[in-house]
Sequence to fold (259 residues):
Amino acid sequence: MSEVQPIFDNSQAAFLFNRSSTFSATTRPASVTYGDGTAIDGIIATDVVSLGTFSSPQQTFIAAESETGIFDVAGLIGLGWTSLASSGGTPWWLNVLSQFESPEISFSLAESVHPSLLFAFVGPG
Amino acid sequence: MILPFGHNSASLTVGFLLAAQLVSATPMPARKDSVQKRSGPVSFPIYRRSQNLERRENGSPSPKELRVKRDAAIDRIVRRYYSPRSNKRKRGVETIPVSSFQEDNLYYATIKIGTPPQALDVQVRAIRDVTQVN
Fold:
């Protein structure tokens, strides 16, 4: 196994775990089944995960080794609470909450020709 | 077409009568039987509501009012946390663009994972329907 995908991947973009000096894997298996019938199987791992300038140095995630159904993305980042995390880890957004000056996150469905979502964090000033 | 009268019209017939009253100088008598005898297509003009009438009758804010409120809220957050005086410090408010796929069915963001960081496009999700942990 030369590649481990952070959550799942059905494209050419995949996480090359053996090129990361901070990657750490456990032997604990985990699986997630979604409401549409898609599913992944993998192992629980940790590595540094960043979005924008917010970074979680030891983020727990499921490194997917197999998938059921079509995902067409390299991975998935959840915005739910810890109780929803099949990895048992703390969700990324809760881990970086301490880097926020104020615990506020907003989502803006911007109006444009190409619809986009703006994901805004309030960080330290 | 009958939306402005939705609270007091239960059918298209009644809606048509109300619209007819709207466009005529003198209100027509609401005679249901005469309408039901009509055959073929029936058309009547509809008007775009003027801006000062955009507030809905039940008092809920209009889409335009919601947009103004949203923009004002974003401005407040930016003013409160953004410090333009220091270029070295992290911006108070950081906006991370996310792209959508299949008409806003899915949303993507680019995360960086590992050392050195590898950029990966991941789907942003807030809910999950079924969970199974081994």
